[in-house]
Design a protein that fits this description.
Helix content is 38%, strand content 14%. With 369 residues, the chain is of the alpha/beta class. The protein has two domains: 2-9 and 248-368, Aspartate Aminotransferase, domain 1 (Alpha-Beta Complex), CATH 3.90.1150; 21-245, Type I PLP-dependent aspartate aminotransferase-like (Major domain) (Aspartate Aminotransferase, domain 2). The strands form three sheets. The chain has a seven-stranded mixed β-sheet with strand order 2-8-7-6-5-3-4, with helices on both faces. A three-stranded antiparallel β-sheet has the order 9-10-12, with no helix packed on it. The radius of gyration is 21 Å and the shape is globular.
Length: 369
């Protein structure tokens, strides 16, 4: 199997597996006062410090709260932001479902919602953003790297608009964390996830800038600064910490490798059209379309390759990608698009083999169309 779905999830790094395995036998509750508990608690504390360093906060200028994943973190950020007197959220049409669906739910709870359009290249319309963000705005929410088309949004500019209006800025940094620079100084809240950086599924985090008076989302034992109750998993935390440390250490090496693969992909898929801005993007994401091709049929025919037609979270809906439609593509064009994601463990030989098989299958479709 050639794996080209790195935006959906990444292979577990061997170093991460090694960090997690001992905690299958070390069963102490990390919140207990005895030796087993203190040992587990120390492991979580060390992992949290490693994650904070990878986020860009080695000096703990904010609080890093471990969550079940980025979806929980995004829900918490949006719901917490409108707990005060301001009741308006501004976000972008190409955001992940965990943001758009949460915002839509809040709109039914008397929260004003503005969903900003994007240009044909997938980047937000900054003029529209400047007009929409005002003194009523509680939160501006924007993704750093889009999960479907890989474009890098101007989050620092959006954060400046938010702060000028007295609003908070929340960044979904899931796809960019550990890969590209995160302008942490511009952010008030940041969501990240372990399984996008070769860590385990089931754990993520919400980073909160110091000084934020934030409401708890899960009540109970008061763990994690009294903001999120519940017994933490030392195994998952250790895995997340190892993945974050590895991403920080290997970042330059990984980026050089991904850039080489990205250049190769340009040559291998020259008959396809790239969706999203060509320059302002993360190179490990290639969203491509070829008119007349049925992407779903292509995926079902090529079972020796793991790739997708968009977000894994919406793959069963049967609807064309909301991201591609926001770019102005027709439904037919959106259904002709595939997403190829590659990273640390992808080889050039794998990419060449996958491209040959995808191009051949696409040519067969077009021949019989």
């Amino acid at each position: 199997m050639i794996y080209l779905d790195y935006q959906a999830t990444t292979p577990l790094a061997p170093e991460v597996r090694d960090a997690m395995l001992p905690w299958l036998d070390k069963f102490g509750n990390p919140h207990s006062p005895h030796r087993l508990g203190r040992e587990a608690g120390a492991a979580i504390e060390a992992a949290t410090a490693r994650i904070a360093s990878a986020v860009g906060d080695p000096d703990s200028k904010g609080r890093l709260i471990l969550t079940s994943g980025a979806t929980e973190a995004a829900n918490w950020a949006l719901q917490g932001a409108v707990a005060g007197t301001r009741r308006k959220i501004v976000t972008i049409a190409t955001e992940h479902a965990c943001v758009l669906d949460t915002a839509a739910w809040l709109a039914h709870q008397n929260v004003e919602l503005v969903v900003l359009p994007v240009l044909a290249n997938g980047l937000v319309d900054l003029d529209a953003a400047a007009r929409a963000i005002d003194e009523r705005t509680a939160l501006v929410a924007a993704m750093l790297v889009n999960n479907e088309i890989g474009v890098i949004q101007p989050v620092a500019d959006l954060a400046q608009y938010a702060h000028h209006a007295g609003a908070l800025f929340f960044c979904d940094a899931v796809q960019g964390f550990g890969r590209i620079d995160l302008p942490l100084d511009a952010c008030d809240l940041v969501a990240i996830s372990a399984h996008k950086i070769h860590g385990p599924k089931g754990i993520g985090a919400l980073w909160l800038r110091d000084g934020l008076d934030w409401p708890a989302m899960i009540h109970g034992g008061g763990q994690q600064h009294g903001l999120r109750s519940g017994t933490l998993s030392p195994m998952l935390a250790a895995g997340f910490g190892a993945a974050a440390m590895l991403a920080e250490q290997r970042r330059e090496q990984d980026m050089l490798h991904i850039n080489r693969l990205s250049d190769l992909a340009d040559d291998l898929f020259e008959d396809w059209t790239l969706n999203g801005d060509r320059d302002r993007r993360y190179g490990g994401n290639r969203n491509l379309r070829r008119d007349g091709v049925d992407a779903s049929r292509l995926i079902s025919e090529l079972r020796e390759i793991a790739f997708s037609a968009g977000s894994a979270c919406a793959s069963g809906s049967g609807r064309p990608s909301h991201v591609l439609r926001a770019l102005g593509l027709s439904e037919a064009q959106a259904r002709s698009a595939i997403r190829l994601g590659f990273g640390r463990y992808t080889t050039q030989e794998e990419l060449r083999e996958a491209a040959a098989l995808i191009n051949q299958a696409a040519a067969r479709q077009l021949e019989w169309a």
